[in-house]
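Field: COMPLEX_INPUT
Field: COMPONENT_COUNT = two
Field: RESIDUE_TOTAL = 319
Field: MODE = joint
Values follow.
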Amino acid sequence: MSGANTTRLANLHDVELAALAAAGDRAAFGELVRRHGSAVRGLLRRMGSAPAEADDVAQDAFLMAFERIREFRGEGAFAAWVKKIAARLYLRRLQRERRLAGLAQEAEDGSVDAHQPDAAGRIDLDEGLKSLGAAERLCVSMCYGAGLSHAETAEALNLPLGTVKSHVKRGLEKLRTRLAPAGAALEGRQGNG
Amino acid sequence: MAELEFERRLERLFGDAPAFSDEKAFAMAVERKLARGWTLRRMLIGAAGLVGGVVGASQLILSNFMGQVEAASEGSSRILRAGVAEWAPRVELLSALPAGTSVVWIASGLAVLAMGFVLTRVIEEF
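Field: COMPLEX_OUTPUT
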């Protein structure tokens, strides 16, 4: 891709890039991947996926997004649209490998205490999520990270709506007590590849 | 109220994408897969078009289309010759055209090409 084309694409809005991609412009879609790849990979890791698996699923999600790019009409953010695709793909993979049932049924005491608190005993989001049970983590990430409703999450996880709401409620309670207060330095801390 | 604020805050935290040191490598890997998939798709489309053309040609031949076209062609050629002879008896225009069967084969070949092209376009669109 030429430098001039790269600059031109970098100046376009996501919706314009999506329109170009819908017309078959792979370079335009590449720009979208560069912009939002980290957000999708980050979400999958926050859902509990191992880094290599998260990258694998994220790649598949972008390939699927390219195939379905005509369905994206720019009503919401492009990143949110791809995140939903990625979250559903990850769940499908868990189902296929029969890992989902175990995670979804996991008891509340299945939570791990892997967080590393700061001096005040408060932690950031990534560490906070690690302290939740797998089901709580999945439900909270899908609702607040992928933007799915409780009902959509219940359907995707094949769980009763009430169970999902309980997981979310418990997860939020744990996070509220453990997360660093708003505006604290930890909030802006970023992970690395 | 505090609960709602916490939920908004959580959404913002989730919205903050972590930085990865291999962001470019990830994007390139996706673009490579896209390119590979695109090439494969074009090959499949081309193959489907070719198969469609061959199937179309074989159907034409098996349905004795050639014989019928040839007969129709000869009939219309006779009528045309008579018409031309009536209006311009000295002009031998039709003698310049290739005769009988070869015209039919050329027309069929062009029809198969057109069919393959149309099939390819249709598959590409959907």
